[in-house]
Automatic annotation (TrEMBL), chains A, B:
<dbReference type="GO" id="GO:0006950">
    <property type="term" value="P:response to stress"/>
</dbReference>
<dbReference type="Pfam" id="PF22381">
    <property type="entry name" value="Staph_reg_Sar_Rot"/>
</dbReference>
<dbReference type="GO" id="GO:0005737">
    <property type="term" value="C:cytoplasm"/>
</dbReference>
<dbReference type="InterPro" id="IPR000835">
    <property type="entry name" value="HTH_MarR-typ"/>
</dbReference>
<keyword id="KW-0804">Transcription</keyword>
<keyword id="KW-0805">Transcription regulation</keyword>
<dbReference type="GO" id="GO:0003700">
    <property type="term" value="F:DNA-binding transcription factor activity"/>
</dbReference>
<keyword id="KW-0238">DNA-binding</keyword>
<dbReference type="GO" id="GO:0003677">
    <property type="term" value="F:DNA binding"/>
</dbReference>
<feature type="domain" description="HTH marR-type">
    <location>
        <begin position="16"/>
        <end position="156"/>
    </location>
</feature>
<dbReference type="InterPro" id="IPR055166">
    <property type="entry name" value="Transc_reg_Sar_Rot_HTH"/>
</dbReference>
<dbReference type="InterPro" id="IPR036390">
    <property type="entry name" value="WH_DNA-bd_sf"/>
</dbReference>
<keyword id="KW-0963">Cytoplasm</keyword>
<dbReference type="InterPro" id="IPR036388">
    <property type="entry name" value="WH-like_DNA-bd_sf"/>
</dbReference>
<dbReference type="InterPro" id="IPR039422">
    <property type="entry name" value="MarR/SlyA-like"/>
</dbReference>
<protein>
    <submittedName>
        <fullName>MarR family transcriptional regulator</fullName>
    </submittedName>
</protein>
Length: 156, 156
DNA sequence: TATAATTTAATTGTGTGCAATCTATTTGAC
DNA sequence: GTCAAATAGATTGCACACAATTAAATTATA
């Protein structure tokens, strides 16, 4: 306790010191910053991520996409339906295992890739850090994310 | 172009290289990791942030809280109403400037602070990094967030 | 001092995130 | 081979985020 009677732990409850808030508010800023650049493609940021996953490999299951993006079917199912309505992807049951739904690209969805290449270029500048900084920051975040995911298992 | 006919920009559209996705998925993991620790308090993660802001200083306007958390009234108004219903905060119009709504704490809301001090302690371990790492990562994220915010103005 | 411009919250509508539950299908244990 | 367990996806319900609009109050300006 200091003279004012406040505990040493007080500084732990200050927003200014929160690593979690730095992550949270930066993530919100990322989504907001992408929005005007994705508007030309008619995509939201999570929809853009799904398209990126599909441009890397077509005909993935909902589960596979969900594992890559850490999103569950409650989030993906309606999102994928919107992409289907937009004419960018196809959804069809796997004939071998009918529990699975395979997500493919339409010609429009495939063609969008060329236009999408401008997005990371523009965003790279917006982040305002060089390749090396981005790389080390990315790996630090990912290792922290993995720590957080592991910690949830422990609490349960 | 390489032999396969793919452009050099291809690697820019790989999820694996996305700094934005590292931020996005880590932020989601943060919210998920906080959830079981905040369940005892009956708070969501954004609600917890609002309470932290109010524990630092009572009787702030919605606008002041929004500026600190980078959230607008569309997000805050319903969230604050839920905290009011939960008996943690008070909402009253400023008598001097009736456009403003002052947010205060109830006795219950004030008392919650002591119990909340366990949260950053538990989460500190979950993040799995030491104080210095957390500090530098936080400042890197904040400077990047500021860059992103500035970049949005430029696009508009 | 009228009134136009600005400011503050609230509201509306869309799109996530995620827990919990449900249905259909497949796999496993016996 | 049958039935229980596991798996994949869809559905439901709740709580954000945020753009766009609205309403009320205040400030600025002619």
């Amino acid at each position: 306790m200091d003279k004012a009677g406040t505990s040493n732990q007080e500084s732990l409850l200050k927003l200014e010191n929160f690593l979690c808030f730095a992550i949270y508010s930066t993530a919100n800023a990322v989504t907001r910053a992408y929005q005007p650049r994705l508007a030309a493609l008619g995509l939201t940021y999570p929809q853009y991520l799904v398209m990126v996953v599909l441009w890397e490999e077509e005909n993935q299951t909902v589960k596979a996409i969900g594992e890559k993006l850490s999103l569950d079917s409650g989030t993906l199912t309606p999102l994928l339906k919107r992409l289907e309505t937009a004419g960018l992807i196809t959804r069809r049951r796997d004939t071998v295992d009918e529990r699975q739904v395979l997500i493919g690209l339409t010609a429009d969805g495939r063609a969008m890739r060329a236009r999408a290449e401008a997005v990371p270029v523009a965003m790279g500048k917006a982040f305002g850090c060089n390749m090396d900084e981005a790389k080390s920051l990315r790996s630090e975040l990912i290792s922290m994310r993995d720590n957080l995911v592991d910690s949830i298992e422990e609490v349960k």
